[in-house]
Each structure stands twice: as structure tokens, then as C-alpha cells.
Specification:
The complex is a heterodimer of chains A (about 350) and B (about 150).
Chain A (H helix, E strand, L loop, with lengths): L1 H20 L32 E6 L17 E2 L32 H14 L14 E6 L8 H11 L16 E4 L1 E3 L6 H12 L3 E5 L18 E6 L17 E4 L16 E8 L5 E9 L2 H18 L8 H4 L4 E3 L12 E3 L9
Parallel strand pairs in A: 1-3, 1-4, 2-3, 4-6, 6-7, 7-8
Antiparallel strand pairs in A: 9-10, 11-12
Chain B lengths: L8 E2 L9 E5 L17 E3 L13 H8 L5 E2 L2 E2 L1 E4 L4 H10 L4 H13 L4 E3 L3 H10 L3 E5 L3 E2 L3 E3 L2
Parallel strand pairs in B: 6-7, 6-8
Antiparallel strand pairs in B: 1-9, 2-8, 2-10, 4-5
């Protein structure tokens, strides 16, 4: 009995200490020495630079009223064209489709509705309600490409072009061209199509960084757009710096970032191994309300962490170009254990240092 | 009448049976959308990519096998569970961070109180389960395609 009481008290003390140890998302690092998760990117004490960085989020749309995104959004665009757009066609309304929207008889999880909001929050959330983006000074350019219905390849090409400030027929000019384009999307062709590659080459020639999720295909090779040359494909790590089981596995993916997954057995605050995101949940009456939840899982969420990291670097070094990345980023890369199913892979994680601020 | 219509296409096999997630096929009527060729089949990266199946995310898989009520287009999502194939079940569920024994207990409870976790005993039943409990998810040791079920993820 005495032993049980002592064990209970010890467990409570550990729980209280854990709570006190961390009031920011684990993937950003920790203020307490040696307490950071092994895969944390350690940007917690890196203040953003003075230069504004625009990050386009090509996704399911963003719910602009979320408190964690207050002041962080630029005017975006809904690039989903008819007949796939349940609202009839393209417009300046970049909000997602309704929660239980259906495309004919096709059913889709309500999670699609909040995806773009969650991705955006990992890049630039303002800290309200405990959600911190990697770079709270970055501005999000929301571009909606996904709804309850599917999208067309032309919509994807137009979304990328518009994000980059290239002209798109029938769409007003984008007054805030992106410095970085994040695409937490996957699919298409197993080899990057010539149309997509041509466009990405044009975008990179404009010194715009293109970041894409490696995809959650359980260790299969990269889909589009991650498989296109010049795209920074991002795989997912757990908090302990191991490649997640759902992540695509391909030698072309070098950069990995926390993506969340199964709970870990370690006795640490980061063992939850889910990413803190700004999202929406349903109350007991079925009404949607804004929320902050530790539930992000997928390469969808690893990709914006890298986009946010690059934006932090650009906020100090605005003249850096995609071509500079391989040289300059070497000082922020750390080793990740290679996966037995991909002996040619050379996975690297990100870990910030004061070098982020240096030219 | 459904079984005679079902045909199996084994796309490939492997010595080591990694679990392959399977989802209910989308009903045939998807009106007013563009023709779906491979080059058009993109999805949000946390979701399965084919428009031919219900749209679910990794988080949905975790939730539904944890006993959390998960809705797809307003309908409750079902999960099929095959404890007799221990190796496959363990690989599938631990990849989601779940303990097979806990899911087993949940499924047993759900067999008493009608819910969304369903026991099956073999692969035939797994396919039937995914088909009958639309919308549903399950796992097999190789990609299998029927008129009601397709691999997803």
C-alpha cells in the first residue's frame, strides 16, 4: 500500500514537472537544457529577421477566423475550377468547403476541411492558444486547390503559377508573390510530368523555394510534386528522430522533419509524438469551434515545418536563392538513421543554430 | 448476389507481408467532376490519393481503430479487425501506434454494443466487412481489388 502511494505521488510529480517543462510545441525545441526532443528543429530562441517572407500554402483552403492565424493571412485565391468546385468556380474566397460536403456520392473525411488551416499554423501561427509557427513573422498566402471533389492538373499548375506571381488567364494578378511555396499534397504521376517540371523550373528561376510533402504512402517512392527536380521533398520523423512508417521512402528525399505518429514509449513530454496545430473540432452539439490540438500526423505537417524553417532563414537573409540551399543548409542538417528498406537514402533532420541569422 | 460480382486482382505479392490498407470503393456515381486520369489524382498528403475510394486521413485510421467515432461525409466510418492473423494485425496497428490487445478489447465490447469496430476471421471476411460496412477501412497482406474495395495509401 505504502509503495503504491509513493508510486502515485512520484507519477504526479513527474506529470507536473513535465507540464511545467514545456509550454511550447515540442517540435520547436525546449528552453530547458537537454530536454528537447531528438528531432526538434530548435528554432525556439531564433527571432525572425526584419524581412517579410511570404509562404504560399496550396491546400484545402484556410479558415481565416482562427485566432492563431489572426494577422497572418494575405488575400488568397480559390483556384479550384468548375465542375470540381462546389461553389461554382474560382474566386477570392479561399475558405474550405463545408464540413460534411459531398461530391456526388463520394465521401470524404471532415479532416480535409481543416487541413490547410493546420498546415498554415505550423508555418506562421501567432502563439495565441499555444500554437506557434516556426516563423510567426511570415505571411501566409492561402490558395485553395482541394475540396470535397477532386481537382484537375490544370488547377494545380495554375495554383503554382499564381503563387509565384506568374500570370494566370482569368485570374487577377497576385499582388503578393510567394518566396516559398508549400504543397502538402501528393499524387499524380510516378515520374514528374514535363508540364509540372517546366513550371517548377520557371518558379525556381524566380528564386522561389518549392517545398512538398513526400507523401504518406508507407515507404513507396515519391509521388508528384515531390518527385520533381528542384522541389525540396520532406519526409516525416518521429520525435525520437526515426523515419515514420507512413512516410514515402526515396533517395531523393534528403530533408526530414517532425511529422508525428504513434505515441512513443519514452518518459518525456514529447512522447505524445503529435504536432500541435490550430484546427477546429465539433462540440457536443455538433457545432464547429476553433481549437488547439496535439493531433497532427503526416508528411503534410512535416513539409510546413521545413517551409517555416526556410522562411525564418530568409527573414534574415532575403537574398538567398534555392541554389544556395544545399551549401548553406549543411550547417543546419543532422543525421537521421537510414532506413533498412532504402540503403541509398541519406536522411537528414533540421536543427537550427545561430547560423540561421548569419549571411 | 454481391459475391459473384467480386473478382480479385492480385497486383503483386511479397515474401514479407507488410500490411496494405484497404478502403471502401466510392459509389460509382461521382457526378460533375473532371475525368480522373492518373495525372489528375492528387490529394492532401495526409489522405489517400485515389478518388476511387472514400477519402480518409492517417488521423482517421488512428481514431477509428481507437474506438473514436469518425465520420466520413457525415456517415460513421467502420474499421475491420482480424485478430486471428496476429503478425499482420500487429504490424498494421502498431504502425498507427495502437496496441492490438487494446483494439481487441474494444472490438469485443463493440460486438456487444453495436459500434464501428468489426471482428473478421480471414481475408475473405475482411473484404466482405469493408464492403458491407460502407464506409469502412481494413488491412490485408497484399493489394487486393474488388468491386467494393480498393487498396488505399
Amino acid at each position: 500500500m505504502f509503495l503504491k502511494v509513493v508510486t502515485l505521488i512520484a507519477a504526479l510529480v513527474v506529470a507536473i514537472n513535465d507540464g511545467a517543462a514545456q509550454d511550447v510545441p515540442w517540435h520547436l525545441g525546449s528552453n530547458i537544457a537537454n530536454a528537447a526532443a531528438p528531432s526538434a528543429i530548435n528554432t525556439l530562441n531564433i527571432k525572425p529577421g526584419s524581412h517579410r517572407v511570404v509562404v504560399a500554402v496550396i491546400d484545402s483552403g484556410v479558415i481565416a477566423s482562427h485566432p492563431s492565424l489572426g494577422g497572418q493571412l494575405l488575400p488568397g485565391y480559390d483556384m479550384l475550377s468548375a465542375p470540381n468546385n462546389l461553389r461554382g468556380g474560382r474566386s477570392t474566397d479561399f475558405s474550405p468547403d463545408e464540413r460534411d460536403a459531398r461530391c456526388g456520392q463520394r465521401l470524404i473525411s471532415g479532416a480535409f476541411r481543416t487541413h490547410g488551416t493546420e498546415v498554415s499554423s505550423l508555418i506562421a501561427a501567432n502563439g495565441v492558444d499555444g500554437v506557434y509557427g516556426v516563423n510567426p513573422s511570415a505571411k501566409i498566402l492561402p490558395i485553395r486547390l482541394f475540396g470535397a471533389c477532386s481537382m484537375s492538373r490544370n488547377d494545380l499548375l495554375d495554383a503554382i503559377a499564381w503563387a509565384a506571381g506568374l500570370p494566370v488567364a482569368g485570374v487577377p494578378e497576385n499582388p503578393n508573390p510567394a518566396n516559398i511555396i508549400n504543397m502538402s499534397i501528393a499524387g499524380g504521376l510516378s515520374v514528374c510530368g514535363a508540364d509540372l517540371q517546366r513550371l517548377i523550373n520557371r518558379v525556381i528561376d524566380k528564386n522561389i523555394f518549392v517545398v512538398a510533402a513526400a507523401g504518406n504512402n508507407f515507404h513507396k517512392p515519391l509521388p508528384e510534386p515531390a518527385n520533381c527536380n528542384g522541389v525540396i521533398s520532406v519526409g516525416a520523423l518521429d520525435a525520437e528522430n526515426h523515419i515514420e512508417v507512413y512516410s514515402a521512402l526515396d533517395p531523393r528525399t534528403i530533408v526530414y522533419a517532425p511529422g508525428g505518429g504513434k505515441r512513443l514509449s519514452a518518459d518525456a513530454y514529447w512522447a505524445v509524438n503529435k504536432l500541435m496545430i490550430a484546427t477546429y473540432e465539433l462540440d457536443f452539439l455538433g457545432r464547429e469551434r476553433s481549437a488547439t490540438l496535439e493531433r497532427g500526423v503526416g508528411t503534410s505537417f512535416a513539409s510546413p515545418i521545413v517551409a517555416g524553417f526556410i522562411s525564418l532563414w530568409l527573414s534574415h537573409n532575403p537574398n538567398k536563392r534555392p541554389a544556395d540551399l544545399s551549401r548553406d543548409f549543411s550547417k543546419f542538417l543532422r543525421s537521421v538513421d537510414p532506413h533498412e528498406k532504402c540503403t541509398e537514402c541519406i536522411p537528414k533532420g533540421l536543427a537550427a543554430s545561430s547560423g540561421v541569422m548569419q549571411p | 448476389m454481391r459475391w459473384p460480382l467480386i473478382f480479385f486482382i492480385l497486383i503483386g505479392g511479397s515474401v514479407w507481408a507488410d500490411p496494405v490498407w484497404h478502403c471502401s470503393r466510392t459509389a460509382n456515381e461521382v457526378k460533375n467532376v473532371a475525368i480522373e486520369t492518373q495525372e489528375n489524382q492528387f490529394s492532401l498528403a495526409s489522405f489517400n490519393s485515389s478518388i476511387d475510394v472514400i477519402g480518409v486521413s492517417i488521423s482517421d485510421l488512428i481514431d477509428v481503430y481507437s474506438g473514436v467515432v469518425t465520420r466520413i461525409g457525415g456517415l460513421p466510418l467502420s474499421a475491420c479487425f482480424m485478430p486471428s492473423n496476429e503478425g499482420l494485425t500487429s504490424a498494421a496497428l502498431t504502425s498507427l501506434g495502437l496496441q492490438p490487445s487494446v483494439v481487441h478489447a474494444l472490438a469485443r465490447k463493440n460486438s456487444i454494443i453495436q459500434s464501428n469496430l468489426h471482428f473478421v476471421t480471414d481475408e475473405k471476411q475482411m473484404l466482405l466487412c469493408i464492403a458491407q460496412h460502407f464506409p469502412a477501412v481494413g488491412y490485408l497482406d497484399e493489394p487486393t481489388e474488388t468491386d467494393a474495395v480498393l487498396p488505399c495509401f
